[in-house]
């Protein structure tokens, strides 16, 4: 009964359940009190949570019209030319200083050239922007976490479209398609946490049921480690009917 | 004499027209739905990432618009994409769910006077990710149970159950806090 109370409050119950709840509410003051608390809590959340101010609308429209994300500040031509100019000025200044007699001497012996112990850290908005750009670069397939499927289909084009839709649904980030006569090979990078859903979708399309996890413990550990961070590469070979 | 157009040019023209039509549509869709998508994102990945994720949502929608067959409403479809984008960014950037800030004047209404603002903030923050998502979808994004289920890809009964347990948890947290 109590489990239906919130759905009753939201108007999400079937008419027969509504009738049951309403009879119970008449007879049970405890249930009425609980309903009142749920209503108050719902109103507190709906009206109490501050609405965020909306940002980024114009940039999104610009990206949609241009078909691509606006360039980051460091990638804009003006910034690039400024950086090039600054670099040229620095090189010239160093050359000028070195060519004057008695000017500052620069050490060139290996023992005095101490390499930095750590790579320089980039934080804040610059880091986010760099991460964003690195993510958008074409990446090689991740070796290791790989699954292969090969199965026959009645209609090759429909099956390819179905796999493409499945890949879109699980937010696959890389897809390659190769036609091989009466078969098509699709290679998809599936986010690790969506691999199971993707494989189940393939099974619904006719793929053989997936095998048990590998017995080799080191292999299993390696796959688990990859699954924490990376995508699973799934190779699907769809075999069309013989013509 | 009719002008003969090379076939490749005609194919290109049809292709360009389709691109132009889609571009126009997606801009119109963004005009109508941007606020909704941005608010959806900001509550899941916070203000620092929300505009990027909202933009990525519309860029993904632009690419996928031809495949939208109207099986769900446009709003549900967009929020489904936004949900996936938020999960992707949260996973890659290790983003924690942001705190939901409440108005200062919460509890001025007699009906909600027993709800203390700070306790409600804590109660919301202590929800599991699944329960929090159900509360956000229904109470703040204003979706029905069926729409929420379509966005996150679970049965409507699961949404109902998660919402029930989320509210039970918050009631308990609030009443326990009030007795202390």
Written overview of the protein:
Chain A is α+β, with helices and mostly antiparallel strands and 243 residues long. Helices cover 50% and strands 13% of the residues of chain A. Chain A contains 9 helices and 4 strands, in the order ααααααβαββααβ. Chain A has a 4-stranded mixed beta sheet. Chain A is flat and about 100 Å long. Chain B is mainly α and 180 residues long. In chain B, 72% of the residues lie in helices and 0% in strands. Chain B is built from 7 helices and no strands. Chain B has helices spanning 7-45, 47-64, 74-93, 117-125, 129-140, 145-152, 156-179. In chain B, helix 1 (7-45) packs across helix 3, helix 4 packs across helix 7 (156-179) and helix 5 (129-140) packs across helix 7. At the A-B interface, helix 1, helix 3, helix 4 and helix 6 of A face helix 1, helix 2, helix 3, helix 4 and helix 5 of B.
Helical residue percent band of chain B: over 70%
Number of strands of chain B: 0
The overall pLDDT of chain A, averaged over residues, is 74
Note poorly predicted spans of chain B: 1-5
Determine the number of helices of chain B (DSSP H or I, runs of at least 4 residues). 7
Supply database-style keywords.
heterodimer, A: 243 residues, alpha+beta, 4 strands, 50% helix, flat, B: 180 residues, mainly alpha, disordered N terminus
Blueprint (SSEs and pairs):
The complex is a heterodimer of chains A (243) and B (180).
Chain A: H1 5-9, H2 15-27, H3 29-48, H4 57-66, H5 77-99, H6 124-136, E1 146-152, H7 156-169, E2 174-180, E3 183-191, H8 195-205, H9 217-229, E4 231-239
Parallel strand pairs in A: 1-4
Antiparallel strand pairs in A: 2-3, 3-4
Helix pairs in contact in A: 2-3, 7-8
Chain B: H1 7-45, H2 47-64, H3 74-93, H4 117-125, H5 129-140, H6 145-152, H7 156-179
